[in-house]
Amino acid sequence: MYKQQRYELVESLRLKGISDELLLQAMIKVEREKFVSAIMKPNAYKDIALPIGYGQTISQPFTIAIMTEALQIKKGDKVLEIGTGSGYQAALLYQMSAKVYSIERHIDVYNEVLKKFEKLGIRVHCKCGDGTLGWDQYSPFDKIIVTAGSPSVPESLKKQLAINGRMVIPVGNMSSQTLKVLTKTAPEEFEIEDIPQFAFVPLIGREGWKE
Ligand code: SAM
Questions:
Q1: In a domain, 69, yes or no
Q2: Of 97, 102, 90, nearest to 74 (Cα)?
């Protein structure tokens, strides 16, 4: 079911300039309808963000594609995701043969996504907590993706990124953010590219927005 819509979505992403084949093939395989509620399934292949409950969203496919492409994922990369949400982004990374570590702060969202991963056989290391502090125990990470908007780049995440590693994070105010793509060139040095105008739910935590 939805196979045709999935192909059409991927074709539309190609037309919008997404060219990472590992990612596009993963998007053909991962069934986005399994990451939204029954009532939202008919909208699963529209290029829009959708509510997943608890005031949270599954990000727009184009946004997910831009962020994932910017990471330049290679098979076997160790990837830290902040904001597990519906689990769709983590499922894509897993499908791309990355080793995925994902942190979600909202306990109900976390409990739901754990059940989903188990049911779908998706092996992702998950924890419930404040992702602004990263997951030091498993650092350094080759790639870090933050899926909620932050006032700045958390220092803990910068530290936990491997040399030559890449991080993508939306940074800005509560209503509009720029996607920052950081490449760590030395222990305290980063090259930074900006991709403007995105809107994410807030990253809430010690090194993010305060509750
Ligand atoms: N990656 C998700 C997906 O594929 O559905 C999209 C996630 S949604 C846009 C952002 C998520 O970040 C929400 O589930 C929210 O609860 C979570 N979040 C916000 N602040 C956080 C923090 N400090 N640590 C971990 N998760 C956080």
A1: yes
A2: 97
